[in-house]
Automatic annotation (TrEMBL):
List of catalytic residues: 150, 351
This protein's name: Peptidase A1 domain-containing protein
Keyword Nuclease annotated: no
A single BP term in Gene Ontology: proteolysis
Amino acid sequence: MASSNSLLLLLSSCSLFFVLAVSRKGFASEDEAHHYHTLQQSSFIPSSICNPSTIGPKKSGSLEVVHKHGPCSKMSQDMVQPLNVEQILTQDQSRVDSIRARLAVNTAKKDALGSKTTLPAKSGSTIGSGNYIVTVGLGTPKKDLSLIFDTGSDLTWTQCQPCARSCYSQQEPIFAPSSSTTYTNISCVSTDCSDLTSATGNTPGCSSSTCIYGIQYGDQSFSVGFFGKEKLTLTSKDVIDGFYFGCGQNNQGLFGGSAGLLGLGRDKLSIVSQTASKYGKVFSYCLPSRSSATGYLTFGSGVGGSNVKYTPLSNSQGSSFYALDLLGMSVGGTKLPISSTVFQTSGMIIDSGTVITRLPPTAYSALSKTFRSQMTKYPLTKALSILDTCYDLSNFTSVLIPKITMFWSGNANVEIASSGILYANGIQQVCLAFAPNGDDSDIGIFGNVQQKTTAVVYDVPGGKVGFAPGGCA
Ligand SMILES: *[C@@H]1O[C@H](CO)[C@@H](O)[C@H](O)[C@H]1NC(C)=O
Ligand SMILES: *[C@@H]1O[C@H](CO)[C@@H](O)[C@H](O)[C@H]1NC(C)=O
């Protein structure tokens, strides 16, 4: 077995945010209707019934996206072990720390002019707090597997029989390559094996001429195993022959009942790159507003049409991440009184696996101050982990909250959906769902709460990422 301890990486969290219905009724003025959302108290209570979305593309190549902890997930609850909100936010910080460590390594690599760098192991990062999952079919005959989907990493892997070292418990039967007629091992001398170095951050190993991958998401979560090739079935019409993936023989971590991970990053081995000739490196997803709803992940163009506002992709943050340029924000129609250089100095990536959007502290403090000034009729309450602007809304049946708009470069001013502004730990602690970084130079991250119900379109050859409102419910 290969070098499982020389590995590293990112990744983790996410969670259940309860959300909200918007109505145009009951506003004191046109101005309020324009700049505020009305949320009903009932919208903060999670539903135990799955309500699949009826909007979104019904095209081929479209997979249903569900929240791992919600009633639409097939995971049984004992398998998933729901975390409380504070645990979710703690794990979210671990993911952010590991993303930052990876970017620091990328910079170090560039500085070393291409010489190989061993990645520092980073502690505490886990993947188990409940990300969004999709179900794909692997092998012949095909076996269904639920994978966490992740725009922040590249390699797709699943646990594989015979689990030579260790497999954690997962909901579906563990994939058995020996029972599939289409599985092949990848040779150590192939260029595909060498591509693992940039996709995983680790030099591949070799065992009886079979290529060995290893990927680590922190000191507790990793997968090591054979690098293989297999038939991947997304939908009955979307079948990819010879898809490269990790067939994990030693898997540990809090992947929470899922069978592994689907890597949607920008690097060579991601599903986006591997399906380039079929889907042209274009994909879209929509994350549902609440865990009792469903969203989608779809490959190829055709989502959103003229509703999509595009912002240029930048190459500034390594080979895996999708980096965007944020220039400013507004709250309730008031533009934050800070220079766009605050955002440009930090840079920003969009990530499906980070829960809470991270901002430079200068930007966060302006955001929080402006938000508070527009929420004075609601009583502030104690902080919730990394969230410091929290309200006790128990005495209110409906709540007016200011709209938040992100000003992306390319003139893409995109309003955050009403479900993407607050993060509730029950009605007594409802918090502004943004957090500051430690330093203005730390990378900003556009997280998954703020992406909810927005169709997010990734067009790699077009060098752009687009946002369209109302992509799913
Ligand atoms: C893949 O390679 C490993 C290590 O050489 C071997 O144990 C396994 O049987 C191979 N699997 C297949 C399907 O060839
Ligand atoms: C709710 O209203 C009651 C009665 O007016 C009051 O005593 C209590 O402090 C209020 N709670 C909050 C959180 O504002």
